[in-house]
Structures are given as C-alpha cells and as structure tokens.
Design goal:
Largest interface: A-B, 46 and 49 residues
Number of strands of chain A: 12
Low-confidence stretches of chain B: none
Strand content of chain A: 5-15%
Radius of gyration of chain B: 17 Å
Helix content of chain B: 55-70%
Strand order of the largest sheet of chain A: 2-1-5-4-3
Mean pLDDT of chain A: 89
Number of strands of chain B: 0
Order of helices and strands of chain B: HHHHHH
Order of helices and strands of chain A: HHHEEHEHEEHHEHEHEEHEHEHE
CATH topology of one domain in chain A: Beta-Lactamase
Shape of chain B: globular
Structural class of chain B: mainly alpha
Distance between the termini of chain B: 21 Å
Oligomer: heterodimer
Chain lengths: ~400, ~150
Amino acid sequence: MKGNSRDHPHSDLERNNVELQHAVEKAKQIQSQLDRQVFYLKTLYDLTSELSPIVQTERLLETFLLMTIGTYGISQGFVLLLNRETRSAQVVTRGMEKPKGLSAEAAESLLYQSFNVSEDKSLAPMTVSRITAPELLLEAGFDIKITCSLMFVIDPSLMGLVAFGTKLSPSPLSSEDEGLLFALVSNFMVFLKTARSFETIQTLNADLERRNQELRQTIAELTEARHTITVLEKAKNHIKSLVQWQTERIGRLSLLDVILILTVSIVVGLLFNISSPNGVTLLPVSIFRQSPPVVTVLEAKRILDEDEAVLVDARPFEFYKEKHIKEAINVPPSLFDIVYMMKLSNLDPQRAIVVYGRNISRHYDEEVAHRLMQRDHQDVRVLTGGLSAWAKHGYPVEQ
Amino acid sequence: MAPKIGNRYLALIFRLYIGGLFIYASIYKINYAGEFAETIASYQLVPFWAVNVLALVMPWTELFCGLLLVAGIRTRSVATMIAAMLGLFTLALAINLLRGAPIVCGCFRATDDPIGWTTLVRDLAWLAMTVYVYFFDSAWQLEKLFLIPLEEV
C-alpha cells in the first residue's frame, strides 16, 4: 500500500491541483454572483433612496427612468402612466421624442393592446408583466428600438408601460438584469402608489381648504345677515312703537299737536302778513315814537277853564258816546282826517290841545296827539290818567 | 271707542259744524288783520303790544283748527284748542258784558252786531258742541284711513 502510494504521488497532486482549480473557479463564480447580487442590491437601494423623498408623480417618472437607463447603460427609454380616474396620461422619455398627441384615450387603447400581448395577462394590483409583442409601441408613435418592455398595474385605475431601447454596450440584458428590472419596476410602483396617495391627500387638503374657505365665507355672511336681521328687527320695533305711539296719540290730547299747530299758525300768519296788502305792524308804532308831552288833570282843568285849550277825546265813538269829559271833541284815530277837517281845521296852531283816551289795548291819545303835531299844532299834550283820573277829581263828565 | 251715552254721528255733525264755523270765521280776519286788531283792542283785555301779533296768529290758528277738525285729524287736540279759544272768547264777552262796553262781537267780521247775552249763550253752545266732539267723535276721521293697523306692523 505504502509503495503504491509512493508510486502515484504525482498523480494525486495533479488531481488535487485540478480539484483546487475547480474550487477556485467555483469560488470565482460565486464571487462574481455575489458581486452581481451586491450590485443589484445596491442599485435597488440607490433607486429606493432616490425615489423615497419624491412625492410628485412627474418627478418620480423622470427619476426612475433616468436611474434605470443609467444602471443598464441604455440609450433610450420611456415611461407611460395612465390614470383612469382623472382620465390623464403622463409620458416621460429619455433619448427619444415624445409621441405627439397621445391622449388619455389613445394611452388606454395602447395599454389594452399591451395587456392582450402581456405574458401574465393579469390586472392584479402591483403586478409587472413582460410585453411579448413590443411592435405595437412603435405603431403607437414611440420611436424606439425596444430591448425590453413591461406593463405594470398599480391598481385598476392606475397602470402604465416601461420600455427600454438598446444598451450602449453590445451585451444583451441577462435574465438577472431582467429580474432586477422587474424588481426596480415593482419598487417604482410602490412609490407611484405612495405619490398618488400623497396627491390624493393634497387634492383632498385643497378641497378641504376650499371648503373651509367657503365655510368661513358662509359664516361671515351668516354673521352679516344676523347683524342685518338685528338692525332690521330694531328698525321694525322702532317703526312699530312709532306707529303705536301715533295711534295712541290720535285718541288723546297731545301737547305736541297743540305746539305744532300754534307754531305753524305763527309762521304762516307772519309770512302772510308780510305779503298781504292789508298787513299790520307786529308792534304798535307808538312804542318806537317819542311820547308827546303830558299834562296833569289839574293843569288841564285850569287851561280848559281859561279857554286856552281844546279837549280831544281820542277813543272810538262808541266809548265817547258812552261817557266823555264835558265839551270834549271826539276825534278817533280811524276817522281822524275827516273829523279833523270838520272840527279842528280852523283851530289856531298855537292853541293848546289836550288829548285823552287810552286803555290796556290801545293808546288812542298818543296816536291822535302825534297826528295833531304832524298838522303843525305846537302845543299838544296828553292828559295823564285820562278820563278816569278826570272823573276821580270830580270834574264834569257827560254820559 | 265712544262711550255708549254719546252718538258718534251727532259728534260728527258737531265736528263738521264747528270746524266749518272756524274756517268761515277765520277768512275775513286773515284778510283784514287791521280790523281784527281793532276788535281785539275793543275788548280791552290784551296788552297793547300784543294786539297786532294776536290779530295775525289767531285767525290762522282758527283756520288750521277748523280744517283739521273737519278732516278728522288729531281731533282731540284740535277740539281742545277750539274749546280753549271759545272759552277765552266767552270769558272776554262776559267781562265786557259786565263792564257794559259798547263793542261788537267781531266773531266773523268787524261790523257784527253789538255783543249781548245771546252772543254769550251762542258761544257757550258752541263750546258745549266742541266738548261733545272731544268725548264722542270717532266717525269718518281721515287720519284713521291712512294709519297702518298695528297687526300689520
């Protein structure tokens, strides 16, 4: 046995060496697989890191496409997203032109056709499926040499397409690369769903804000209306009390009415008097005139007895007729001109004239004395105390 | 609401009569204030400085009171004013009758008949009618036609 082993030491070494080389090869393969897995995981991690802070759908689409084609070294690619709820389609492209005039209806039709040629033919949420006939994308207007195209369904209302063109390097996509692509798209869908939820929340918030604004406006209008109602209520009560007061006033004596009627009468009376040809002065003119000289009863009696003076009774005829000083001539102011002409026109202007006749309401004596002085009579005097003072002295009167 | 002892239509007749009387009485006095001032002065009751003012204002008061009484506006207030004026006239008449003053009434114009006890009785009758109007008038008051019922308010 020992000799036999000594005979084949070389062959053992060779065999061991071969096994070792196999092991090294295998280790290298495993190392390469591990490196690839690390790369895949890192790519997935990087994509997740890039997408996680993004909440806008448009930016998500752009970032995903940019990172994916960068990872695979692909020259062209696009992402199409259809929202069936809002009837809108979004397209993001890299290295190619956007198809012109791609409407939501056209996008939905394209997705329907893609569904028919997909591997899984599934509309289950959060699924990714390879499109087996990518030519239809060319027919839809996407100018791209497709290497790989996928259809993804986030939920029945949100779905889309991802398509990539040829790689910059001549090597095709391996099955592991495609597996990673599926993983990336799946990850992408999660963020899309989150973004849509965020946008939904934003829409709801905007709607809520709008409703809040409307509510605030409504509350303000209600407050204003309430204020208006309060004012109107006060006005109503005021008018009601006014009407009630007026109603009650009709049935009773009101000092206000009396004052009002008197005020109107005074104003209208004065205004009418100004314009009336028969108007009178408000106050007797005699108030503003200088009073004529006066004579006492005794002095008057003396000069009358000595026939040095004429006695004039200035009162109206009715009063004169009733009672007057003996030998007095009646010259009432209302008939002054006529009576003067008849009885006094021939009188010597130097001769004294004693005038009497007044009461609480009229100073006839002053009026007649004034007129006599206007007729150039030099010595006109008013009898102090008038007829009553004369009578009190016991001097003669006629009745 | 007039008490049952009074007749609202009799009050209406009195109201129209007294109102018309005052309107008629005021017309001449308004146009001839000077003559009316002499009439007032003849009663020897008003201070000489107030005679003309009274002659200017009183006829217009009579006119407005007469018009309002006929129309049935503020009837009680107006009836009170007319009663007050009639009361003053009656008092002035009585004083001058007692004085024996040889004056005319001047109720309607300056050339009226001299005052007498019949004049006093006539004024007292008018005063009684006015008092009747004050207490019992409620028919055909123009004011009520334009008043909104409280229930509607």
